[in-house]
């Protein structure tokens, strides 16, 4: 462990924070972290697991810069865990831009000191993009918020279906109609959970790359560490953490494939694509419906669709989780630069410039994606 430096902060606080690299994270600390995560429903996301941090560190290699700050309570027991990827004097979320949630995982509502943890990590600024809004340690440092859409199925699919029907949402009925039409015109639908098909996995990646190219987005899969991470997760079948390939065939044809991250009681929607030839049947929604039918009290209870304002997410979800983006920084050149960028973005977004108002925000997001992939 690396003892924290005071960095101008209160000396007694600094003494209670340790910093370790991801590879040095002991089994005892990982277990304490996992216990704290499991005890609070807010933290029930595989992206907040120590196993996510370890997997990203292995994928990125010896120069990953992944560090964990561990704040201890007055008795000296680990009580708060913050993982970051340190790059020079700034830090980003571990696994960004592939990471859909960030938070300081705390035990029993412990009041973590984010600034002291960053001083211990020896960074002057931490940029976050999907911070849990309920995290008090970052309150007041957000520059915007987004909605993550969550489907809770604690009592099984039939109860969830009845709930959606009572809410006046007809999306499940529409999916049923499209499934019957697809089966008449193409062939029987076949769902496979946790598929080990290499060919279907490769097809999903090919579809995703085509999607990114068609929409002018960065091809994440050209980055070696991204593929190493996905490959490791694909092979990790543990119930408490790992990836999962879910597929839907129509007849003999692969119509849709999802690769999701699993952990705790949650399946997190991650990489989603379908064969454009079957677009009219909405095979991606059919596959979501099949996954939802597997949820219930005896296993995974939640399908997290993540952020993004899409109609299917609004209609399928029955809970919302707010996430924020912004930064926490100490006085420095990098903090001033980031603040200026957000100020320019805010001015542009408030002016009546049409689509040009969104350009600074898009540019910042693109730059952050590139920073994370390096």
Write the layout of secondary structure elements.
Blueprint: E1 2-3, H1 11-15, E2 17-21, H2 27-38, H3 50-60, E3 66-72, E4 78-87, E5 90-92, E6 105-106, H4 114-121, E7 125-132, E8 142-152, H5 157-166, H6 171-185, E9 189-192, H7 198-214, H8 224-235, E10 241-250, E11 253-263, E12 266-274, H9 283-292, E13 302-307, H10 311-316, E14 319-329, H11 333-350, H12 359-373
Helix pairs in contact: 3-8, 6-9, 11-12
CATH domain fold name of the largest domain: Aminopeptidase
Output the helix-strand order: EHEHHEEEEHEEHHEHHEEEHEHEHH
What would you report as the Rg, rounded to the nearest angstrom?
A: 21 Å
Counting structural domains, the number is 2
Helix content: 25-40%
Features:
alpha+beta, Aminopeptidase, 14-stranded mixed beta sheet, single chain, about 375 residues
Describe the protein's architecture and organization:
With 374 residues, the protein is an alpha+beta fold. The protein folds into two domains: 2-139, Aminopeptidase (3-Layer(aba) Sandwich), CATH 3.40.630; 149-321, 3-Layer(aba) Sandwich (Aminopeptidase), CATH 3.40.630.30. 37% of the residues lie in helices and 26% in strands. It has twelve helices and 14 strands. The protein has helices spanning 11-15, 27-38, 50-60, 114-121, 157-166, 171-185, 198-214, 224-235, 283-292, 311-316, 333-350, 359-373, and strands at 2-3, 17-21, 66-72, 78-87, 90-92, 105-106, 125-132, 142-152, 189-192, 241-250, 253-263, 266-274, 302-307, 319-329. Strands 1, 2, 3, 4, 5, 6, 7, 8, 9, 10, 11, 12, 13 and 14 form a 14-stranded mixed sheet that branches. β11 (253-263) and β12 form a beta hairpin. The protein is globular and about 65 Å long. It starts with a strand and ends with a helix.
